Amino acid sequence: MADMENYRMVSWWLRKDALPWPNEALQDQFRRRADQLAKAGANSAIIFGAHFRWDFCRVWEPLHALIRFVADELHSRNIILFDHHSSVLTCYYNRDPERFEHTYSNHRQVLISPPASAPLPENELDDWKMIDVMTGFPAFLPQYGAQEFCMNNLDFAAAYANYVRRLVADTGIDGLMSDDAVFYPRFRSCGCRHCRQRFFREYGHVLPPVDNLDFWGNWKNSAWRNWVQMRFQTTQDFFARITAAVPPGMRLMSCCSGCANAGANASALSYLDFIAGGANTVMLEMCGNTPGANGTLNSQLASQANLLGIARQNHLPCIGLGYGFSEDAARCVWAFNKFLGSGMWFSSLVHRLGLPDEDMKAMPDDSELLGETFQAELRFKDWFQGDSAAEIAVFYSTATQRFYGGQQNDFAADYAALCQDLFARGYDANVELTMPSVETSPYSILLVPSAACMSVEEEASLLAWVDAGRRAIVLGPTGFFDEWGNRRQLSFADSFGVPVTLPDLERVPLFPDNCYRAVTAAECLSSREYWMPRPGLCWFLERSREGLPVSAAEFLQEQMPATVPDGWYCRKYHDRHGRLLLHFLAGEYAQELDCLLESRRDPNSPAYRTLRIVKRIRPASGVTRRITLRVPSGCKTAELLLPLFKLSSRALAPYDGTVSFMVPGDCGYFLVRFS
Question: What is the domain count for the chain?
Fold first, then answer.
C-alpha cells in the first residue's frame, strides 16, 4: 500500500436535468455537492452519466462545458476529476427495436440522448460496428440495449482518439476511465471485415463459417487459440491509441468487474492488456451489492485479489468500486477496500434500480453517504499505509485461463474456490501473475492451482523456489501444456519421472458455447493422491474446486498454522516503521432491505435481481466477539483501532504472550498494531 495512491473517490452523477447547460440552479447544486465532498475528505470524483458518449455527439459542446464547470469547482477544493464513459457502446446509432427499452432503468447510459421518436441519423455508422459471426449483422447487446463499435476498425479508432483529445482540451479533467473496449458479445464477435483481414494478415488464417466446429470453440486447434490471442491483442492496441491521445502521465484506467473468469476470457477482458496498452491505474468493479445477497464477500474476493496482484506487479494504484444506497453500505465498501489495501470509489446506481423518478430524486446523493469513512482514513492515516506482509502467494496462470478449455470449470473455478477457502481458514494470501522470485519475494509458501499451461521458464522458477528451501503446494493439472496451449513434449510430471497423466478434453463441439455451463473438467490420473517429487514440493492431484483438498489443508496447517478468530478474514501489512498491522474484516453479514423502495421497483429492470436497496448491514451473529491474538515474536506493545467508532486507538496489555479484547456486536472491521 505504501507505493499506491489512496484514492477517496465518489461518483459525480449527471441526472436527467443535466442539460441544457448552463443552468444556474444546477450550478448552485454542484457547488454544494463539491462542498460536501471536501468536507467528507474526498480527494477525487468521477463523472457517472452520459455514458454512451457517442449518443451525445450532438451535445458534446454543452456537455463538455458542464464537465469543465465541475472540474473547476473541484479543483478549487483540491479534488481531482475523472471523466468516465463508454468508448464503444451506442444505443442511438442502430435500428434494433429493443434499443430504447432500457431508457427507464438505464438512465446512466441514455439520460439525455435523443428520444425514441427522433429520426435516426442518415449515417448509422454501420461500418464501425461489431458484426455477429452467426448472423452477419451488427451484434446486439440485450443487457445494455446497445450495439458496439469495433476496435479493429481504424477509422473508428482514430475518431475516438480525436474525441479524447477534444474532451481533455475542453474539460480540464485530471483522469479518464475509458470503458467497454472489449468483445462484449463474447465469441460471437467480431466478424467484421477489419477483424477478418487482421486475422489473415497477422496469423495467416481465414475466419471460417460458424458451422466449422473444427475451428470454433475447439481449444485443441492452434488456429482457434490464435483467434483468442488476436482479440486480447486488439484490446491492448486500442488502449495504446487512447494512451497516445491523452497528455503524458495522465491518470488512465478502464472498467473491469474481474478478469479471473471464463466470461472475461470470452470477452478478451484483461487488465494485463490494458496496462500493456498504457493504463496506469487499476480499477476493480464489485458488481451488485457489497456484501453480496448471501451476506458474504466470497463472490468478490477472488476477482479483487487477482486485480490487486496485477496492480502490485506493475506498481500501480488500485481503486475498488462498490455500490450502495446507505451509510452502512459506504462503510462496508470502504472497509473492504482498506482491508484489501486499495483505494475506494463509492457509488450509488439509482438509475438502474427501475424506480419512478420521484423515488430516485428522493434518494440521497452519493456525497451524502460517506459518513465518517474518509475522515477516519485521514485521522488514522498511518494505520492504512504499509506493504503487504502476506506469507502465502497464489500463482494465477493467465496462460491456462486463455488457452486451456475456455470453461469456468477448467481453471477459474479452482482458483476462486482456493482464494475463498484460504481467507476463510484465516490465511493471508497475495495473488501473483508471474512465478515469484526467490531473491525478492517475502512469501514462505507458494500455491499453484490447476496451472495446466506452464512454460519451461515458469517450471524452472518453481523449482528454484523449492531448491532455495521454500515450500510449494501444487494442485490439480499442472504443466501438461506450454504457455500457448500446446501439449508439452516433456510434461511437468515427466520432468520428475512421476506417473501422472491428463487426458484430453472430450466435449461435444458447441458454438456459441456457454462458458459457464456444467462440464466435466479433466482430472489427473495417477495411482496416488499426491506426490513429493522434490523436497519442499508437494503435488496434490485433486483440483481445488471445493477449496483446499483435505490432505493439502492438513499439509498447509503443518507448515503454517492459522490462528485467526472464527468468522474473520485477516490481512497483514508492515508500516514504514516496521510495525505489524493486522486488518480484520468480518466474513459474513446480516442485511436489511428498504422494503418500501424495493416494492416500488420495476421487476423487469436489468438490475432487479443483482442489485438490492440495502439500508442496514451488520456482521452476522456467529462472528466471534472475544478476540485473542498471539503477540508476534519480538513485539512488546499492541494497539487496537476501531476506525468507524469515532474512537482513538487504545493500548492492549499483553499477558502470557497474547492480547485479548472484545469488539462491539456491530463492528465488522478492526485493526491491531504490534510494535
Answer: 3
